């Protein structure tokens, strides 16, 4: 938190609203429904973000509250991380035993390149797709792309687009798909717990929260592994992108584009 | 610095009160039981925030908070059992609900940017997230199986 923001605690209107949202959403409680073999969990935190967003468009929330709320997310996350710290501590022997899996799954973050980049190119996106798909586009990656290509480059616009999507929908999206994917695929909940740590506190909380709700008997292990993995992502994610993710995205983009050019070239050739 | 500590403390206390109420309503944990654990979490968070300002190394404050949290709750640490027992009364999801409520209020301002993005971005963004998530899970599954952990 920077020194500029002072006396945020005095914004009683904001805190009272959050209190009301929390009371309402916790009273509503968790609901689940099945989609085919998978389960979608609706958790109080998901209603909370949607109610908060909806309130922004009513006169109840003024611009000031919205501005004040931003640094408070960071502060709230420190409390969440403290809780995750004390879950990791007792599980440390277990986490050390699972260390190799935890380290190697960081490479799984490259999965976005192989899955999302071809789709972006297929949809006709140009160099934007490099910024969009080289990582999950959290703060360090936005910094990396801005540094390398500049703010007003296509790559910069791409990374900002995903960053904004992640900010607005990341937690809701991860919360919805993690429980669903964990129940629909044969993969073990612990594998998904490790995958939940993608380098964003709120997304990790949402993803692991849904996993806990779907597999309540494994609560401590799920939270410990998700937390440890998130810490690892926070500390290694940027280097992963610099040395592997971004060069790989550039290469794959060139390959995909060449193939696409050839095909469209042949098509126009035939057409003439 | 002092002003900062005062501000953080007051805000964390507000967060704590809201979370404890959510913890009560959503997870049936009586506030009296949750207070000691919440105080511990607030102290860990404060220690991390202060350390980040004091130490010259530029790493995010949440990294300090996490390290302190792990250190005080390690099995080898004296008193860790009590810390774990007390913080067990705080449900993780009870902490995330207020965070996401603040987040919802804050992201309203990004909403217009979001609307401008266009449908292609939304499709790509969904695959970006699913790709990372599934990619990591598949690798974790393979290694955990090789190790015989699952």
Note the topology:
The complex is a heterodimer of chains A (272) and B (150).
Chain A lengths: L11 H17 L2 E5 L2 E5 L1 H13 L6 H26 L3 H6 L1 H6 L6 H12 L5 H6 L5 H11 L4 H31 L4 H8 L4 H14 L4 H53 L1
Antiparallel strand pairs in A: 1-2
Chain B lengths: L1 H26 L3 H24 L6 H13 L6 H8 L4 H16 L3 H6 L2 H28 L4
List keywords for this structure.
heterodimer; A: mainly alpha; two-stranded antiparallel ribbon; disordered C terminus; B: 150 residues; mainly alpha
Notes on the structure:
The complex is a heterodimer of chains A (272) and B (150). By secondary structure, chain A is mostly helical. Chain A has twelve helices and two strands; from the N terminus they run αββααααααααααα. In chain A, strands 1-2 form a two-stranded antiparallel ribbon. Chain B has 150 residues and is mainly α. Chain B has helices at 2-27, 31-54, 61-73, 80-87, 92-107, 111-116, 119-146. In chain B, helix 1 crosses helix 5 (92-107), helix 2 (31-54) packs across helix 3 and helix 2 (31-54) crosses helix 4. Chain B is globular. The mean pLDDT of chain B is 92. The chains are: A mainly alpha (272), B mainly alpha (150). Chains A and B meet through helix 1, helix 2, helix 3, helix 4 and helix 5 of A and helix 1, helix 2, helix 3, helix 4 and helix 5 of B.
Would you identify the regions of chain A where 5 or more consecutive residues have pLDDT less than 50?
Answer: 268-272
Q: How many H/I helices of chain B?
A: 7
Count of helical stretches of chain A: 12
> What proportion strand of chain A?
under 5%
Overall, the morphology of chain A is globular
- Can you give the helix content of chain A as a percent range? over 70%
Largest sheet of chain B: none
Please report the distance between the alpha carbons of the first and last residues of chain B. 48 Å
